[in-house]
């Protein structure tokens, strides 16, 4: 898969992405990605090559510099339903790049991959991702209270996190003009 937007390319990982990937996954900012923490270029290379069963990961790189600034991942749950998520480098925040990448991904899934429904899980303290979902026209379908644990509290007990579900249907995506999403 290859998706081009105005400033980005979403593509398969390449060996040269190791340094950029390590930069933002050496210290994941949200607990749900604690298991994705990388501590070496070797670990980053392994991460690029292997993913969970049925999950596809793609690099998000700046078009001009071809430098990886994040990645998106997609899990096809059945023939027309996809679970999506993303990681982005903090150094590139505030420029609309995550929004541009996710718009490109959702548009691709709806128009090319036959998606009818796309959803994502967002932990309650991940304010930026919740805002992004809402700006893309995704609706909050619910909140699972103390749904999962990724880390422990200081006393060693599991820290359970509330997790929100955001989704959008193809008919909703089609009714939103690309201009209204990008200006949002």
TrEMBL record:
<protein>
    <submittedName>
        <fullName>Undecaprenyl-phosphate N-acetylglucosaminyl 1-phosphate transferase</fullName>
        <ecNumber>2.7.8.-</ecNumber>
    </submittedName>
</protein>
<dbReference type="GO" id="GO:0016747">
    <property type="term" value="F:acyltransferase activity, transferring groups other than amino-acyl groups"/>
</dbReference>
<dbReference type="InterPro" id="IPR051531">
    <property type="entry name" value="N-acetyltransferase"/>
</dbReference>
<feature type="domain" description="N-acetyltransferase">
    <location>
        <begin position="8"/>
        <end position="157"/>
    </location>
</feature>
<keyword id="KW-0808">Transferase</keyword>
<dbReference type="Pfam" id="PF13302">
    <property type="entry name" value="Acetyltransf_3"/>
</dbReference>
<dbReference type="InterPro" id="IPR000182">
    <property type="entry name" value="GNAT_dom"/>
</dbReference>
<dbReference type="InterPro" id="IPR016181">
    <property type="entry name" value="Acyl_CoA_acyltransferase"/>
</dbReference>
């Amino acid at each position: 898969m290859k998706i081009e937007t105005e400033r980005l390319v979403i593509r398969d990982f390449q060996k040269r992405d190791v340094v950029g990937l390590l930069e933002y996954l050496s210290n994941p900012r949200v607990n749900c990605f604690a298991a994705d923490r990388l501590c070496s270029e070797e670990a980053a290379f392994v991460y690029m090559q292997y993913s969970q069963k049925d999950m596809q990961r793609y690099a998000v790189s700046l078009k001009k510099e071809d430098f990886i600034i994040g990645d998106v991942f997609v899990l096809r749950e059945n023939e027309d339903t996809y679970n999506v998520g993303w990681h982005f480098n903090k150094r590139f925040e505030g420029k609309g790049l995550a929004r541009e990448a996710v718009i490109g991904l959702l548009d691709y899934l709806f128009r090319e991959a036959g998606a009818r429904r796309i959803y994502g899980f967002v932990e309650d303290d991940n304010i930026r991702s919740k805002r992004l979902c809402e700006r893309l026209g995704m609706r909050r379908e619910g909140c699972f209270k103390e749904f999962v644990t990724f880390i422990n509290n200081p006393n060693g007990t599991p820290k359970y996190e509330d997790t929100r579900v955001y989704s959008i249907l193809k008919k909703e995506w089609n009714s939103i003009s690309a201009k209204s999403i990008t200006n949002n």
